[in-house]
Amino acid sequence: MAEHYKSIFESAGNKLPDNACSNLSHTRENALSELESIGLPNNRMEYWKYSRIGKVLKGLEVNLGLADEELSSLPLPSSVEYSSLSKAIADNHPLIEKHLGKYAGIVNAGLTALNTAFFSNGIFIHVPDDTVVEDPIYLPQHSANADGGIVQPRNLIVVGRNSSVTIISEGTSGSTDAMINAIEEIVVGENASLSQYLLQNDEGNSVNGSYVLQERDSRYSRVTTTLNGTFVRNNVNVRMEGTGCESNLYGYYHIRGKNQVDNHTIIEHKEPDCLSNELYVGLLDEDASGIFNGRVMVHQDAQRTNAFQSNKNILLSDNATMNTKPELEIYADDVKCSHGATIGQVDQEALFYLQSRGIPKQIAMSMLLQGFSIEVTDKIVDEDFRGKVLEQILDHLNTG
Amino acid sequence: MSDELEILKEVTDQDYKYGFVTDIESDVAPKGLTEDTVRLISKKKNEPKWLLDWRLKAFRHWETLNQAPQWAHVKYPEINFQDIIYYAAPKKKPELESLDEVDPELLKMYDKLGISLEEQKKLSGVAVDVVLDSVSVKTTFTKKLKELGIIFCSFSEAVQEYPELVKQYLGTVVPYTDNFYATLNSAVFSDGSFCYIPKGVRCPMELSTYFRINEANTGQFERTLLIADEDAYVSYLEGCTAPIRDENQLHAAVVELVAHKGAVIKYSTVQNWYPGNKDGVGGIYNFVTKRGICKGDHSKISWTQVETGSAITWKYPSVILKGDYSVGEFYSVAVTNNHQQADTGTKMLHIGKNTMSTIISKGISGGFSNNSYRGLVRIGKNAHNARNFSQCDSLLLGDRCGAHTFPYIETSNKTAVVEHEATTSKVGEDQIFYCNQRGLDTEQAIGMIVNGYCKEVMKQLPMEFAVEAQKLLSISLEGSVG
C-alpha cells in the first residue's frame, strides 16, 4: 500500500499547491511517511473498532482534484481575510507557514496524514486581533466531484487575540462511492471566542477531522447536528494550551436506515484552570448504528480542571445499535471530572401524560423526542441558524 | 503539608509486612516451557489422558499467539516465558491426620500471616483450603461439607476423584483459546480449588482459600472451578499475600464459575500481593482471567474484590448473563500506591431476557501509580428489558498519579436501560480541615473519608474479610496524601 501512495504522490506532486512555501512540501512528505507507517484505519484499530470504515474505504482511490471552493457571498467586515486555501498558499501568507499542518495529529489513523499529503484546496479564514464579527460566516460545503474516490478538503481558521466570530457550515455531501476526508485546523487566540455550528443532513460518506488549539482564556463552542449520512465520522480534538480556557462540545444525531454516525472527541487539558463540557445526545432508528467515544485527558499540570461529559441515547428500533465509550484519563489530582452515558427509552409515563391530554401518540412521541434534542440545539446562539436546525430536526422526526 | 510529607515518607519507607520466605524443600521443574513441561506437569499429577490432551491443545494454541496483550493501560518489561519455572510442589508428605502433623514451618508462616488454621477452625467456621505454591497441603472441613454433598477440594484431587465433573465443566466458561494468559494457564495450570454445590444446598460456611507464591522464580498458575447446581448458594473467599522477591513474579490464574438455575454464587477477593518496593522494583504481575456464567434462569453471580497489592493488576471478573432474570454484580475497590499499576474492571454480557447488572468500582490512586477502570456492558439483540447501572469513581491522593476510566457500552436492544456514571476527584481540603478541626489528625481523617468512600463495596464483603480489608485499606493509604 505504501508504495501505491508514494507513486500517486510522485505523479501528483507538482499539481498540489505547495510551491510557494518550501515548508509545506516537507510537511507533505512527512505525512506520506506517516501514512506508510500507520496505514489507513481498519476495524482492528481501537478507535475504529465499531466503525464501518473498512467497508467504506474499500476500492476507493485518492482523488486529487478538488473544485475551487465557492466562497461565501455574505458581506464580511473587510478586516476578515477569507480566501481559498490554495490562494493563501500561493500568496505565501505568513499564517500558512505558521499554522498549516501543525495541529492535525494522527488520531484519525492514516486519514489525517492522507489529507496532509494530498490536500489540494479548502478555505482559509483569518480574523485579525481585536475584531468582533457580528454576522456568522458561512462555509461552503465540501463536495465530492464526479470522479468519486477519497477527497481531501482542508480548512485553516485562525481567530486572533480578543476577537469573536461565529462560523457555520452545512453538510459535507458526498456520494456512496466517494468519501470526504476533511481536515480543519483551528486556532483560537488569546481571549478570543469561536462558535462553530454544523448541520450534516446529506447522504454520503465523510470523515471530518477538526483540530482545535486554544490559547489562554479563549472560548470554543461547537454544536454538531447530524441527521443523515451513510457513514459520518466526526473527530473533534481540542487542545487547551493556555490557562483559563473554556470548551463546549455539543452534538445531536438522529439517523435511520443503515446509516452510521460516529462521534469521537478528544479534549486535552494541558494547563490549569480550564473548563470543558461535552454533551452528545442521539436517536437511533431502523438499522442505524451510533458510536460515541469521548476522551478527556487531564495532564499532570492541569490542576483545578473541571471536565464534564455526557452521552445520552435512545434506541427506537430493535435493529439499531449504540456503542458508547466515555473515557477519562487523569494525571492531576485537583480536578473535578465526571462523565456519564445512558441508553434508554422514552418515558412511558410522560407519553401517557400527553396522550391523556388529547395529544395523539405519534405527536406526543415526536414532542418528547424533540425535547430530547433541545438541550443541544439551545446552545446554538445564532437565532436564524437555530431556527433552521430545529425545523430540520422536526421534519426529520415527523417523516419517520 | 510537612506533616503529610512526613507521614508519606514513613509509610512508603515501611517494608512489606508479609515478606518472608519459608524454607520448604520443593520439587521444581526446570525453567522454560516446552511440550515436555506440559507433559511433566500432567504426569506428576497423574492426570487422565483427556486432560493432558486438553493441556496440549492449549499449549499448541499458545505457541501460535506471538505476544501478550498490549492494550491495557500498564507498562512493564516484556516477560520471558522461557525464564519461568512452571511447576513447583512441596515434597510429597504422608497423609496427615491432624494439624499437629503439618510442617511446623508452614504453620509458622500462616501464623505470621494471621491466618492460623487452628484459629480459623475454632473461631470462624471457615474451611480453609491452603494452597502453598501449587499443591494443596491441607484441606479442612472437607468432611463436614461432604455430609451435605458439597465437594470442596484441590483441583488435582477433583481430577482424580470427580473426573466426570471436571471434564464436563473445565474450559466451558473460559475456553483455552480465550486470551494469552488464560491459554498459558490452561497448558500449565498446576493446581487450584474445585468446588461443587449440589442441587438445593445452601453452603453453611464461607469457603475460603489462601494463595501464596512462595518458591522463587515460580510463576503460579492456579485454576479454580466453582459450580453451583440448581438453587444452590455459596459464598467463596479468596485472599492473598506473598513474600518479597526482587524479580517480578507472574501470576496468571483462571477462575470459572457456573451458576445453574436459581443458584447464587458470591465470590470475594482480597488481594494483597507484594506490590514492589517504593521505587517500583519487584512485585507480582497479576494477570488473571475470572469469569462466571449465569447459565440458568434466576441465577446470580456477584464479584467483590479489594485489590491493594501487586505491581500490576490486570483483571476483569466478568459475568455472562445467559439465563433469563439472571443478575450480575461487580463491586470493586482498587488501591494503587507508589509505582503500582492496576487495569481492572468487569464485563457484563447480557444475553437472557430481563437480566440485570450492577457495577460499582472505586479506584484510589496515590504516589506515582496508575489506576484504570476498564469495563464492558454489552446488551445483546435478544436481551429484552436488560438493565445495567454502573458507577466508577476515582479518588486521587497525589499529583503524580493517574486515574482513568475506559467504559465500553454496546447496546443492540431498544428496551435496554443502561446508565454509566463516573467521577474523579480528590479528598477535599475542606473535608480534611473539618476533621482536623474536630481533633482528628490528617491521617485519621483521610482513613475515615476513604473508608466512607469505599463503604458501598466493603459492606458487600463477608465479615471475616471486611475486617482484613479495612485494615489493608488503611495500611495502603496511610500518608499517601501529599
Topology:
The complex is a heterodimer of chains A (400) and B (482).
Chain A: H1 2-12, H2 22-38, H3 53-57, E1 62-63, E2 81-84, H4 85-90, H5 94-99, H6 110-118, E3 123-127, E4 137-139, E5 142-143, E6 149-151, E7 154-159, E8 164-170, E9 172-173, E10 178-188, E11 193-200, E12 205-214, E13 219-226, E14 231-240, E15 246-255, E16 260-269, E17 275-284, E18 289-298, E19 305-315, E20 321-330, E21 335-344, H7 348-356, H8 361-377, H9 383-398
Parallel strand pairs in A: 1-6, 3-7, 4-8, 5-9, 6-10, 7-10, 8-11, 10-12, 11-13, 12-14, 13-15, 14-16, 15-17, 16-18, 17-19, 18-20, 19-21
Antiparallel strand pairs in A: 2-3
Helix pairs in contact in A: 1-2, 2-6, 7-8, 8-9
Chain B: H1 2-13, E1 26-28, H2 35-44, H3 49-64, E2 88-90, H4 104-113, H5 117-124, E3 127-132, E4 135-139, H6 142-147, E5 151-154, H7 155-161, H8 163-169, H9 180-188, E6 193-197, E7 207-212, E8 223-228, E9 233-241, E10 249-251, E11 254-259, E12 264-272, E13 284-294, E14 300-307, E15 312-315, E16 318-321, E17 327-336, E18 341-344, E19 347-350, E20 356-365, E21 370-379, E22 387-396, E23 402-411, E24 417-426, H10 429-437, H11 442-458, H12 463-477
Helix pairs in contact in B: 2-3, 3-9, 7-8, 10-11, 11-12
Largest interface: A-B, 36 and 35 residues
Instruction: Say what oligomer this is.
Output: heterodimer
Q: What count of domains describes the coordinates of chain A? A: 1
Find the count of extended strands of chain B (DSSP E, 2+ residues): 24
Output the radius of gyration of chain A: 21 Å
What's the number of extended β-strand segments of chain A?
A: 21
The pLDDT mean of chain A sits at: 88
Helix content of chain B: 25-40%
Helix and strand pattern of chain A: HHHEEHHHEEEEEEEEEEEEEEEEEEEHHH
